[in-house]
From TrEMBL:
Compartment(s) where it occurs, according to its Swiss-Prot or TrEMBL record: Cell membrane
Name of the protein in question: Elongation factor 4
Functional description taken from the UniProt entry: Required for accurate and efficient protein synthesis under certain stress conditions. May act as a fidelity factor of the translation reaction, by catalyzing a one-codon backward translocation of tRNAs on improperly translocated ribosomes. Back-translocation proceeds from a post-translocation (POST) complex to a pre-translocation (PRE) complex, thus giving elongation factor G a second chance to translocate the tRNAs correctly. Binds to ribosomes in a GTP-dependent manner.
Source organism superkingdom: Bacteria
GO MF term list: translation elongation factor activity
Organism: Jannaschia pagri
Length: 602
């Protein structure tokens, strides 16, 4: 295709502002999909995305549009995930296109993810076309929202498009604006092949599918290509584009976005941001590339039924095939048996993976409390090299006598909230050890920026924020680095025995409160025994909270003595069966359900 007839773009928006609906309308208006195949939210393919109305993996579609000048244009849309956990995917798909539609719900206005995503687009040097959506609704205030876009984001919104993705109003104008306002891609068809590896995923039939953006040169089926990052060579079996179904093409030239398959076995063999060229006569000049995404939240996943460990392993390995940002290794716990320590990009990512394991693979799971990655600076002698341990699991925290200091990850959180809830939001952030960085107004809403410890956010921060603001706050964050604080490992001891699955890292000032909550909960959850059981929370050797579970008065079978022997036998058998689900800690038996409930967050 002639470069001047191509436009590549993405859509950026806050969740629920109508990005997927708009994408559907653009596809429908251009008859990319026959009407009978059109289903709502065509680009959101995974079940969980559909149910929650969120987009997780970036998706791509090529549409053709006859513009007012009578010429046919090829428009490539890369749909990006809207959620903060996937900011990294947003940033890389932005590098593959030249412009963005900025969709803002005209009944709501700019929200935290609008800002986070539009800043990514600005970083990628995009031309940005503002779209005010949902103008069919009576509460729509397009003038006010346009003004807010100008004030808060600082881009011109005088020509913002007025759209209803629901009724289809403004859709043709949007297509025309894409052609008129977004730049055509640059590139040289005669230069050596240079293509960017934008994304990759595993397909059960075709193996790994690689999404590429051709920068220079041309790629044809059957050619041999080289990945510059590692020098591997592959024979290209297929090339094509998404309409949105995969459709074979003869060649992909500069400015085009499409896919290739090349009998690649795992997603891990493809590095996002890599440069793809021809094996012979290719370029040696690599594109800037991306740093691999790092998991920031870890938790243990254990099967409720330990017999399902192998099933869990299979399921996790299958999911990992498709998701290089999800890490896992075997973990064993005295309380929970064998399971996996898994790393995620954030809490939503964690939930998505856990849900898929439970739903698609039918495995009941116990999830241990999420933990962030701490940097443990070990005590070293004069002249020795510094030693820093990355701690993924509180159970592995070294003895305090060997630790010099601990650093924790911090985030910069941006929260937009109506004025009346501002006080509650400030209090919440303050309670979570936050440091206020900024407080301004974005139209009628306050915009607060806080420096917060990530570990205070992974515990129910988002839920608390939603509840104190009745759902009106929006929230986004980015990692800003590590900082030292007084962090300690809190252990839980039942009858003097430590229970590893319940260990957690806490700020020293909160240890009492957290410890108290945990021991009180456990007192309710652990059945009584024939003897008293102390339940303690401790830091190092120091107990910070304690409860005592009093002894049971009678033997279960006592009332059967001298009575019916078969009844007694039955009772004992029943007890034995119950024991299978019990875990032994010294003399104490704790039902597995107690761990599950103790780990649940209120
Ligand atoms: P996304 O999270 O940005 O992808 O948003 P969706 O496309 O999933 O839309 C969120 C909700 O807004 C859905 O219930 C849509 O039906 C609704 N919606 C989207 N666009 C419009 C619109 O123009 N008018 C109205 N009334 N509702 C819309
Ligand atoms: Mg969506």
């Amino acid at each position: 295709t002639d470069l001047s007839r191509i436009r590549n773009f993405s859509i950026v928006a806050h969740i629920d502002h109508g990005k997927s609906t708009l994408a559907d309308r653009l596809i429908q208006e251009t008859n990319t999909v026959a009407s009978r195949d059109m289903k709502e939210q065509l680009l959101d393919s995974m079940d969980i995305e559909r149910e929650r109305g969120i987009t997780i993996k970036a998706n791509t579609v090529r549409i053709e549009f006859t513009a007012e000048d009578g010429q046919d244009y090829v428009l490539n849309l890369i749909d990006t995930p809207g959620h903060v956990d996937f900011a990294y995917e947003v940033s890389r798909s932005m590098r593959a296109v030249e412009g963005s539609l900025l969709v803002v719900d005209s009944t709501q206005g700019v929200e935290a993810q609008t800002l986070a995503n539009v800043y990514q687009a600005i970083d990628a040097d995009h031309e940005i076309v503002p779209v005010l959506n949902k103008i069919d609704l009576p509460a729509s205030e397009p003038e006010r929202v346009a003004e807010q876009i100008e004030d808060v984001i600082g881009i011109d919104a005088t020509d913002a498009l007025l759209v209803s993705a629901k009724t289809g109003e403004g859709i043709r104008e949007t297509l025309q604006a894409i052609v008129d306002k977004l730049p055509a891609p640059a590139g040289d068809p005669d230069a050596p092949l240079k293509a960017m590896l934008v994304d990759s995923w595993y397909d059960a039939y075709l193996g790994v599918i690689v999404l590429i953006r051709v920068v220079d040169g041309k790629l044809k089926k059957g050619e041999r290509v080289k990945f510059l990052s590692n020098g591997t060579v592959h024979h290209v079996d297929r090339i094509g584009v998404f309409r949105p179904a995969m459709t074979a093409v003869d060649e992909l030239g500069p400015g085009e976005i499409g896919f290739l398959t090349a009998s690649i076995k795992q997603v891990r063999d493809t590095r996002v941001g890599d440069t793809i060229t021809h094996e012979k006569g290719g370029t040696t000049d690599a594109l800037p590339g991306f740093a691999p995404s790092q998991p920031v939240v870890f938790c243990g996943l254990f099967p409720v039924d330990s017999a399902q460990f192998e099933d869990l392993r299979d399921a996790i390995e299958k999911l990992a095939l498709n998701d290089a940002s999800f890490s896992h290794e075997v973990e064993s716990s005295a309380a929970l048996g064998f399971g996996f320590r898994c790393g995620f990009l954030g809490l939503l990512h964690l939930e998505v993976i856990r849900d898929r394991l439970e739903r698609e693979y039918d495995i009941d799971l116990i999830t241990t409390a999420p933990s962030v990655v701490y940097h443990i600076h070990m005590r070293t002698k004069e002249g020795e090299a510094p030693e820093i341990i990355e701690l993924h699991n509180p159970a592995d925290m070294p003895d305090l006598t060997h630790v010099d200091h601990v650093e924790e990850p911090r985030i910069k959180a941006t929260i937009l909230v109506p004025d009346e809830y501002l006080g509650d939001v400030l209090k919440l952030c303050q309670d979570r050890r936050g440091i206020q960085l900024d407080l301004t107004y974005a139209g009628p809403r306050a915009m607060v920026v806080y420096d917060l410890p990530l570990n205070e956010v992974v515990f129910d921060f988002y839920d608390r924020l939603k509840s104190v603001t009745k759902g009106y706050a929006s929230f986004d964050y980015q990692m800003i680095g590590y900082r030292e604080d007084y962090l300690v490992k809190m252990q839980v001891l039942v009858n003097e025995e430590p229970v590893d699955a319940l260990s957690m890292m806490v700020h020293r000032d909160r240890a009492e409160t957290r410890g108290r909550a945990m021991v009180e909960k456990l007192k309710e959850l652990i059945p009584r025994h024939m003897f008293k059981i102390p339940i303690q929370a401790a830091i190092g050797g120091r107990v910070v909270a304690r409860e005592t579970l009093s002894a049971m008065r009678k033997d279960v079978t006592a009332k059967c003595y001298g009575g019916d022997a078969t009844r007694k036998k039955k009772l004992l058998e029943k007890q034995k069966a119950g024991k299978k689900k019990m875990r032994q800690f010294g003399k104490v038996e704790i039902p597995q359900s107690a761990f599950i409930n103790a780990l649940k967050m209120d």
